[in-house]
Specification:
With 376 residues, the chain is of the alpha/beta class. It contains 13 helices and 18 strands.
Length: 376
């Protein structure tokens, strides 16, 4: 079938993207689903820093590539071997397909699925296929999803069925921002009730982590960012303290306000400076978690003796250490109870033609979560 999709033809385009147009809205051919695959009519797809890092070249990926990895939609067609979904089901797409058979999957860590990671790196679906073509030439898939498009052919292993009562534009956020941010708090760090928490980087993932800390019962939640308007928004969501990272004494101020630092610090900005700050404000015996994705060349260093003498812990978190089939419905349930108001993170709804302008807003920090919406 012929569809429209946003295709990245080369990385490293000049800013602003509204002028350089790194994403072209092209007519492409989408093949029907093969064995174990599903055709989904895309309803909404979120703009995430992980997309931006491919556009600007920070995260090398094979091009040309149809971008978009945080999305929701409606099942249109089932490939052979898919018997647990039906046409009309509502689904959220997850950006690491889990094969269910490799050692990480067998250990209950599907975010680390080895075949899924290999397929994502190559720009294919889990099967190894590329289902998008432009003038007969294959287009790479972004993280097995490629959702900046009217339709997507994806692996069944990339989908989680959801309740039809959840608005699809809000549902899209659960596929990345919510799984990553909330999961970092409740799965990776296992923040207990009454703990002290700091979140550095108040984008969609960071603010989802803040909401996760509130839902987990953290007693004190410190929000840190470079933008005062985001700090104010974090306070409205429930942060107890806010600090601007531009100030030279930010770390000292946080440590003074929290009697030596917080028990759990989350770096969600994807920068070495943010990670250094997170480590500095973690108290003795505390845990520093990073779910940000800096360029592969970025390195973080620390005094090893402090790690030992203070019994510090540093942890990485990918997709919030989630089991999507378990966690995504749980987070949706918390949202519907009013305990995880992720809809407040949705600041812009745009059409596909405006996607380059949307990435300008994301780069400039003028949006939290934007979604491309498609007419049904």
């Amino acid at each position: 079938m012929k569809i429209k999709a946003a295709v990245l033809n080369a990385t490293g385009a000049a800013l602003p993207y509204a002028q350089s147009r790194p994403l072209s809205i092209d007519d492409v051919e989408l093949e029907p689903p093969g064995h174990g695959e599903v055709l989904v009519r895309v309803a909404a797809a979120g703009l995430c820093h992980s997309d931006l890092s491919v556009i600007n070249g920070d995260r090398p990926r094979p091009v040309p590539m149809a971008l978009g990895h945080e999305a929701s939609g409606v099942v249109e067609e089932l490939g052979p071997g898919v018997d647990d979904l039906a046409r009309g089901d509502h689904v959220v797409m997850v950006f690491v397909p889990s094969c269910g058979h490799c050692l990480p999957c067998a250990e209950g860590r599907p975010a680390l699925c080895e075949p899924g990671a290999a397929a994502n790196g190559k720009g294919t679906l889990l099967s190894g296929a590329r289902r998008i073509k432009r003038k007969g030439l294959a287009i790479n898939h972004h993280l097995g999803v490629s959702a900046f498009a009217e339709y997507a052919t994806v692996s069944r292993r990339s989908l989680v069925k959801i309740d039809k009562e959840l608005a699809l534009d809000e549902a899209a956020l659960f596929g990345c921002a919510v799984l990553t941010g909330v999961g970092a708090v409740v799965n990776t760090a296992r923040v207990p009730a009454g703990a002290t928490v700091a979140v550095i980087g108040l984008g969609g993932v960071g603010l989802a982590a803040l909401l996760g800390a509130i839902a987990a019962g953290a007693s004190r939640i410190v929000a840190i960012d470079l933008a005062d308007d985001k700090l104010e928004f974090a306070k409205q969501l429930g942060a107890t303290d806010t600090f601007n990272a531009k100030k030279e004494d930010c770390a000292e101020a946080v440590r003074a306000a929290t009697s030596g630092g917080v028990e759990y610090a989350f770096e969600l900005a994807g920068s070495v400076r943010a990670m250094e700050l997170a480590y500095k404000i973690t108290r003795r015996g505390g845990t520093t978690v990073t779910a940000g994705l800096p360029p592969p060349s970025a390195n973080f260093s620390f005094a090893q003796v402090g790690l030992v003498a203070e019994e510090r812990t540093i942890k990485g978190s990918y997709i919030g250490t989630c089991v999507p089939l378990r966690d995504l419905p749980r987070y949706v349930g918390l949202y519907r109870q009013g305990r995880l108001p992720v809809n407040k993170l949705l600041t812009h709804r745009i059409d596909l033609a405006s996607i380059n302008e949307g990435f300008d807003r994301l780069h400039e920090g003028k949006a939290i979560r934007q979604v491309v919406t498609f007419k049904s």
